[in-house]
User: Fold these one by one.
Assistant:
Number 1:
Amino acid sequence: MLSLLVAATPAALEEISAYASGLAERAGFDGRDGYRLRLILEELVTNVATHAASGPELAMIRLTGWWSPGRVRLRIVDTQQPFDPVGTPLTDPDGRLGGYGLMLVRAAADRLEYRWQCGGNVTTVLVEHRPADGGGDGGGAGSHPSHSDSDSDEDQR
Amino acid sequence: MSFTVTLTADGGTTRLVLVGELDAATAQPFYDRISEAAETDPRRLVVDLRELTYLSSAGLRCLVFARQKLAEDVEMVLAGPRDTVADTIRLTGFDRTVEMVEEG
């Protein structure tokens, strides 16, 4: 298990990038899978900063990651106002400058789950190796979004 | 994470060369350059992505802004994106709005 506690500020993005690299390396991800992992993390953290009522400097986020070969599971916890990355409708990205962050997270993640628990947002993300030819079952959390009541820890601690 | 963008204008084609990582922390200089590029009144805008190693949604919004800033009859081309950057662009469908080419 690899954990990181950061404030949701632009300055944290470099730290998050390093954290994502660490997880990717442990899972044996190739460049494309590692990129997806970093993208998902940065988009979710940036989203917390954008919506943080307390201001980004005080919006603390705890990242916890577990890995196994070709697979990374992440838990992202923040105590800002409720925000559901699974159920929130995307704003129209065409014509209006918004919605791309969530769109990317949902497309890049292989599973995306959310629950509001003990006064905090708990988002769980699964990133798995995708063949370079874009094959497999089509990927994308669009086919596997859910609101979770459980939290299994079958991956490496 | 570093990012630079350089602008050249030559005979109706304006080229923006992006180097490094384009995300929320580095997007502002690109916005500024996009406005400058539009002022060159190009017939064609080439965004050279060969040395761009990372693109987030903030960077993608810059590209959308560029498309919106240009007149409709101005061609916009994304040239030479790396596989990972091209993947990001395709995930949002923006490749249906602009031309993406291997060389430009």
Number 2:
Amino acid sequence: MDAADLAIFRLQLEGIAERMQEALSHAAFSAIAREGQDCAAALFLADGRLLAQAKALPLLLGCLVPAVRGILDAFPVDAMREGDAYLLNDPWSGGTHLPDLSVVRPVLHEGRVVALTATILHHQDVGGMAPGSVPPDATDIWQEGLRLVPLQWRRNGEPLPSIQSLLLANTRTPQAMAGDLESQWSACSRGARELAEIVSGLGTAGFADASARLLAEGEALTRAALRRAKDGDYVARDALDGDGIDGRSLPVVVTLRKRGEALTIDFEGSSVQSRGPVNAAPAALSAAAFYLLRTLAPEAPSNHGCLAPLTLRLPEGSLVNPRPGAALNARTATVKLACNALLAAWAEADPEGAPAPNSAVVVVLSIGGEDASGKPFVFTEVIAGGAGAHPGGEGAPGIATDVGNGRNMPAEMLEAAAPILLERYEVRTGSEGTGRHRGGAGVRRVYFLREGRAMVSYRSERHESRAPGARGGGAGAPAAAQCRRADGTVIDLPSKARFEWRAGDRLVIETPGGGGWGEGSTEQHSEDS
Amino acid sequence: MTRWSLGIDVGGTFVDLSAVSSAGERRVRKRALGADGPGGAVLAVLDEFLAAEGIAPASVDRLLHGTTVATNALLERRSPPVGVLLTEGFADILTLARQDRADLYARTVPPQPGQALFPEQLRHGIGGRMDAAGTELAPLDEKAVTEAGKALAAEGVQAIAVCFLHSPLNASHERRARELLAIAAPGVRVSLSCEVDPRPREYERALTTALDAYVAGAVAAYVRELEAGLKARGIVAPLLMRSEGGVASVEACLAVPLSLAMSGPAAAVNGLCALLDAEAKDGLAIGMDVGGTSTDFAVLEGGAPPFGESLRVGDLRLRVRSVDVHSIALGGGSVIAVDAVGGLRIGPRSMGAWPGPACFGRGGDRATLTDAFLVAGLLPETLAGGLALDRALASAALERDVARPLGLGVPDAALAALRVANAMLADAIKRVAVGRGADPREATLVAAGGGGGLHAAAAAQMAGARRVLVPPSPGLAAAHGLLGTAQTHSVERPVDLPLDTEAGRASLARVVRDLLAVAPPAQHPAYAAPKASVFVEACYAGQEFSLEIPLDPATDLSGDTLARRFDERHRRVRGQAFPNPRRVRAVRVVQQHAAPAVPPPPAGWRGEAMRGSGAVVLSSDDTTVVVPDGWTWSREPATGVLVLERS
């Protein structure tokens, strides 16, 4: 295989992953998977090393690596058969939070497993104390939903009946779960079919050789990028508003130790684990670390080789590696903040062109209820804050950053699924950090419940803090949220809240702005020009 | 009297004319674009052609045209801004887009493309609201529409886009807004989302509608000027090529100007499909049209181009039905440069048609790919269209821009640049093939455009392909394709019907019958009677993204034929069929009037030999083909197609 053949091999693998991703998100039933793209697809070698990924949400892509490891630890690859599929969501077996179910299917050639296809998808509801299974007031994992340790889900292409009925009995939306599991199986099957064709073209040895070379390329490009940056220790700190139970803020501290072409990421100094659900499973933090490495050499093939230079230290019993049983559904807040801290620390190692911090927030809003006729609905959506400004220009308003890339929920799709009107979706003018280049503004979304009743799970961050500016730029505005009752009462919501929503009430959500870059005022500049 | 049909296509560098008479005679003409731009060039090439061939204008009774005017407006973004009316509270959706970013691992996140394109002061939120069932919750704020119309007219906008929530289900507010705007902003063009893109998801529909308004001014000015020029000569009004792969009347095209976004590339793909040989038709073919500023790729499966519902133009993704063409910024006018670390870079900047490459001698002061080919001895002294090339100017530009920075001689520098260009083309060939699940090594590469033959064999070899076709007069592929393109009219209606019940299928049958009743007349007696094709978009209940399947109203509206066809399609595209009930979400009827058969164009290959082997350079009236060492070539006597094969 020459360099041109290897390039085709890479494109073929990436093409398979992309087509799995499209099959997955287009066949999906869950609104957050279908509209928000909260789902991901990837290809793995039989030993669990990542071979190729779709261009999807980095947080989920990163989480598939430990999920596949967890499956393989429980089910030796030699015992896997054509038509088998495996499932997990347990955070202490490689999962991230309970709504994200990973499905893994083996790819066989001449009777032996040569590779795995894997998908992860945010399901609408996996039970627990609140519709949508992301309760901001949970204090243990059992309140958050059904916990699935690695298990075999399908044999000969069919779901195992007892497992399937157990799954569907533990969700408020069994039809959506059944449909979304089929979407995951379907995408894995599509990928497996295509990958098997490639393996049969190359032969087992040829496929192994090409894969090894592709992983080596990922590693070499990542190491070369590390080598170019300054050696040193770089520290960044931030803090969560609180865990939704106790009011006090929770520090997140990260130290990057960059030596030659190796990097250690250490979260020593971060808060001990919380009672509330802002703990993050190791899978989620490894996704943030993977993200940082991918930004160093974006041209590299996205595979296990890129992870080779990394050592990740997550203190046990901390916010970023909680002990079994901890609540952790709201891990997005912690991971976004941690990833932002990673990028801020790296900006010291490689200051050229570094942007100001982004808002570090993605609001996760989950609403379940019923309309006046008693027909139930559940949906989850993600709402982004602003991006950071940079030496070359302003930051974008209301846009997914770093480990996130979730899309918004169109009003037309939301309103078709629930008795809700989205009354406004607009740029939150004035929330951006000032400076020579302005940060990206946050957004405002206003929801009106037309009839029936609902339970709202609201999870945000930065109600009490601001995204800082860089090089003299101003900080972005904090987040805010209100419930405006039909009777005129206005309730200011904290950054994590669960409450009852009644017909005629309005919910107003404002996301924070990104940091500005450089001293000076944008207005003056625009008048000058 | 002999009557003539003319296909005229405007590219980045040339305007091409392909003609066929009622007696089956073929003629071609080519002309370099002047500084006066494409509009004048069309009439100029027409005048030259008629004079040179001694054809009376009155004997031209069919004129087909492929135009880049809409594409250029979208790419260049120099058109005046347009007004946009959106539902109150949603005036920012064009800048917020879908919240996701294109480049996952870039350090900085740039604003969405809509931010610069649609300035805040020209976006108005308008009161009035429908719900998701299409029921009016609040009446249209007519005063706000009128005030916005007046304000926009005062700002001088020439077009306004209107996109209100849920308009695909109830368009009454949008239609009323158009009436009010006609009074408040007289003479201003109005694009309604319910007409441009009647599909759910407000951002995608708003962007597509706003871009329709954005290109409207440039398209209308161009088309009206062309029409007037033709009328002055006593020549019929043109039919224009649309992205969806058929020609239509001027009025039909001006109703949705964005439908012309891929006019030229769609015509070129049709031209290539007409000349595939059996092997390319049965297997996988990849069209590669190398023009002056860009190269277009299309994967042809079963001898036909694939269509898509979304179209990428630069960083914009439009929701329009279009032939699936992938473009890269590499063509004969692409600038060759050496970057700070000694890397050889080609494009994306192009010298375009004017002033063009240095060797055109029109003041182009940068080395381009065409200059490199000339210096490498692969181009004649005079290009098709009568453009004389100046070797000394090409050599000087390459010396200054490439040879000196690299420390090479001029000939070596030229060859190095050509290798880089071929590698870029090979990379794109691999991407488009793999993107459709095909293996580039099994493809036949079909080279078009004046530069296609120069690159094809080398690029194919780098992509692992072993076979290349160069059709006769490849520089005129799009103009040839226009002559054989059907006149097409399509109409779509959103529905939400069960596919599995008799009652659902009966409702579906009624919608199909309604839509089939709409058939515009043929624009010319040569076109056949219309043939209707019906398609439905279906999904499983609970899904929101549909898949298109064909429907034969005679046989498919009873029993489970349609359900099984949908399951099969779902299995192929998404991996598996589901046990869920199925729903139909849209019906589309396409009426096609087939074009008369067209004999192959003149090839004009130089020399008598019919086969041979490389390394050799072959030439014809309008192109040059490089056959590398290790390749053989042969000419198909019936069609004039040149077949290259790697031995």
